[in-house]
Each structure stands twice: as structure tokens, then as C-alpha cells.
Amino acid sequence: MEDGLMARQISRGESKQGVIRNLSAPQGSRFFVKEQSVVNLGGAAREGKILNRESSMTIAAARDGKNSDLKNFISVCGSPSYILRRENFRGKNLRSSAPSWAWHAGSGSLNLNSESSCVNPPAAKNPYRKALILSDGRKGHENQSIAFCELRGLEFCICKIAYANKLLKLFSYALDFLGLYFKIFKCDLGESGAAADCKNGSNLNNSALNSPVAPDSANLDAAPNGTNSDAVSYSANLDAASDRNLNFADFDLFVGAGSTTYYALKFYARRYAKPSIALMYPKGYRKDFSVIIAGAHDRPKPRANLKISPVSLSFSRPQGLYQPQRKAVGFIIGGPNSCFEMGDEILKQIEGVRAQFADCEFALTTSPRTPRATENALEKLSWDYSVIYSREPVNPIGDFLAQCEWVFISEDSVSMISEAASNGSASVAILSLKRKDAHNKFDDFISALVSTGHARRYDEALKKTAKYDLKAFVREIKI
Fold first, then answer.
1. Percent of the chain beyond pLDDT 70?
2. In 384-446, at which residue ranges do the beta strands (DSSP E only) sit?
3. Please, which of 31, 202, 389, 402 could form a disulfide with 318 given CB 3.0 to 4.6 Å?
4. Is 154 within 8 Å of 130 (Cβ atoms)?
């Protein structure tokens, strides 16, 4: 063997007796090391280039190695006393496709965490940075997905999912049961066709998001193998700009809440080999998502991929809509649903609270479900600040939670109570409504919050409440 630095990676089953290969040959498994620095010539050769981490003289020596003496190459790399050694990688947390051992030159150990290591490339500091939210158009569901991304520190974009008819949605349950995934839904990225990053307002329709291997801008919904997908826009136009302006493969994970999104969530996650995050319990569909985040009130069956939260996901910020001049009490009023009716009982409780906190100022917001009769009755009371949602569709809840001493919320909304129990600084009390059944899921949900000190019922002693740490809950989830 000539004096020189000769290194090669040997796959399992390959003979150790083979002759030293031509340095310029495109061998994808050969790499060189100077001390602890590893140069991946194999991967670079496949890309038609050589990565140089030492000097231009090293590149020249590598290219001319076929006919050179190699001694010049040795003089560049350092001492000719390098030793060809076999390094065992077993138990070092390598990718499943990586070999368990390799040959390298030098007396130092191989740094598997080095940025130049071809055996174990470094993991990104935040491997999941960009999420695509699949939305069914319902604000409550969409806001949970946004909350997940905000709490997780992810950039995100929203894509609306819909089915052309109810039969196709029903068909999605059968296909999921059989483990078959086709593009039977429609995807809408916005009327303008440009996907906006809702976190920072930037336009995701840019070259940074477009695949570098895409032959043209019309093929951005490409599968990993480069083939065109059968993307369908919300308007059912197969060539709609909204589908062409986003490369689904550029997202690190897919997030969705609501039954309309679950089949599409699996479709994209499987197509692009990315994690799927299902929010709320996906009844009717197989539970083989990467992660399911469900509320305890849904009573989900335990699973390895299931994370149970006592509250729905929410992320609240003050909007600058309300600034109290003194201690304040806020009222957040919902409306009737399948479990509750809304009538005069809510007005009597509000009047009782106002009498109890006579030295405070009062703020009110109704919701899209609040009956007109209730809104009219509430308007007759004196308020320091009020939002009648049917006429002024703004959301001051974030301001109430940040500025008020207490907020009183009608018991009909899991999302509003969850937001209050986990955001801001205001203590939370629940106002009761006329019920349709003796017991319902809201009872279990509220009782759990009361037992942990995250909420109080109005008819109980009003002691200050604690906040549930949703950020810690979300960030501890392993994806």
C-alpha cells in the first residue's frame, strides 16, 4: 500500500480484500476524513460536484488522484502517519438506512455529529418549522389549528378543504377504513391564489417555497418523486392558480381539526411522508395519525399517539379594543346549542354579578350564536364597553382576559371557556343556562376545570383561579 491517505466506506457484505478504488470514480459510499472532519465525496459526486472543506489543493488532489503519486495529497492533508481504521457506529442513533460501521483514516474518533459527517447529517435545530393547516372553514376548528402552530412556534399557512358533495365525504370514511387515499376533496388556498403566512403576513408564494427541481411554476404540487399530483382547487378548476402556487412538499407537517379535514390530512401526510396532527377526536376515522390531541370531555380511548388536554387549544392576544380605566369585570355570552337554551336566566345572573362588583366597570361581548332577544335585553344595561356581535363582528376576548379582574362566561362554549382558562390573567367564572338534558359533556368539562382550580361556578365562592399552561402541554408533545 502506498504512503497516503486512503479511506473508503465498506457496505455490509462487501469484501475487505478489494483494491483501492479510483479517487475520482463516482463511488457514493466513499468518504475522506482529516482528523475529525469528514468530506462526503460520494454524495457530492452524485450531485455532480465535490464538497471541499479543506482547501482547493485538496480538491485538485482528489480529482487527479487517479494518476497522481498521492504523496502530494498527503502533504496537503498533513502527516502521512494516518491509520486506516474501522469505526463501529452501532448504538449511535443513526438513520435506519445508514451503515453500522465504516472505514476512516486518522487517529481521532469519528464525530458523528459533525456538520460534515456523511454518516449522520445534523438534525435541524427545529426540525418542524413550517405547518400547513387544513381548515374546514369553521373558525372554532381553524383557531385550534392556529393555536397549535402559535404555541409550537411554527410558521403556518391555511388551506381550506371541502368536498363537492356529502357523498364524497361519506366515501372518505370507507376509503380510510380500507387504507386507501385519493384526492377526492377540494383544496382552496385563497381567492387570489397566493398563500399567506398567517403568522407574519408574508407571502408564501415565493421562490424559497418552490421546489428547486420543479421544471416550471405550474408543477409546484409535486409528489416527492417529481410526478404531478392531482391537486384540485376549491373552485374545482384543475388548473387553478391557488393549487399551483404552493409546494405541499415544502411543509414539515400537516395540521387539521374537524371531520372534513381528517381524510385530507392523511392523504397529504402519506403523500409527502410528513407527520399528521389531528386536533379533536377523529370519530369515524382510523386513529393512525402521527399525533391526536383531544379534549378530556370527549372521553377518548387511550392510545400511544393520543394526547389528552383538559381544555381545547387556544391562543389569545389583546387586540387593543378595550382599555379599562379601573378594575373591570368582563362578560362573554354565547348562545343556545344542542345541550342548552338561553333565556332570562342569563340576564338575572349578569345583574347579580354587577351588584356584587359594583365598584368595577363592566365590559360585554356577545357571540355569533347569541339570540337577538338576548342582545336587545343586554343593550338596555349600562356598559363601559360592549360588543354586540350581530352588528359589530369583532373579538375583544383577548383584551378582556388581559385587562379584567374576572370574566364571566356562559357555559355553552368549550372553546370560549378553554380560552379563558388558559390565557391572560383574569379569573374565570361560569354562568349557568337552562339545560335540555340532566347531564351532558359540558358538565364533565367544567367540573374538571373547577376541580383543578382553573374555573369557578358563579353560584360558588369566587376565589381567584389559576391558568392552565397550554404552551408547556403542546411543546412537550413529541412529533
1. 62
2. 385-387, 406-410, 427-431, 434-435
3. 402
4. yes
**Confidence class for position 459, pLDDT limits 50, 70, 90:** confident
Give how far Cα 401 sits from Cα of 97, 155, 317, 405, Å.
50, 25, 9, 8
Instruction: Name the DSSP class of 411.
Output: T
AA identity, residue 139: K
- State how far the alpha carbon of 185 is from the alpha carbons of 25, 170, 262, 430, 475, in Å: 48, 11, 11, 40, 31
Rg (CA), the chain: 30
The count of residues in the chain is 479
Q: Where are the alpha helices (DSSP H) in 54-213?
A: 56-63, 71-77, 139-152, 166-178
Within its chain, how far is the Cα of 18 from the centroid?
Answer: 49
Q: How does DSSP assign 447-472, residue by residue?
A: HHHHHTTS-EETTS---------HHH
Q: Helix H segments across 190-258?
A: 241-244
Distance CA 12, CA 191 (A): 54
SS3 category, 152:
helix
Please tell me the chain's helix, strand, coil percentages from 3-state DSSP, rounded to the nearest 5. Answer: 25, 20, 55
- What average pLDDT does the structure give for the chain? 74
All structural domains of the chain, each given as residue ranges with its CATH number in brackets, are 127-190+245-309 (3.40.50), 328-470 (3.40.50.2000)
- Which of 309, 252, 306 is CA-nearest to residue 282? 306
Identify which of 322, 315, 314, 345 has the alpha carbon closest to the alpha carbon of residue 435.
345
For the question of whether the overall pTM of this predicted structure is more than 0.70, the answer is: no
Beta bridge partners of 291: 277
Q: Which residues are 292's β-sheet partners?
A: 278, 306
The pLDDT score that the predictor gives to residue 127 is 63
Give yes or no for residue 92 having a pLDDT over 90.
Answer: no
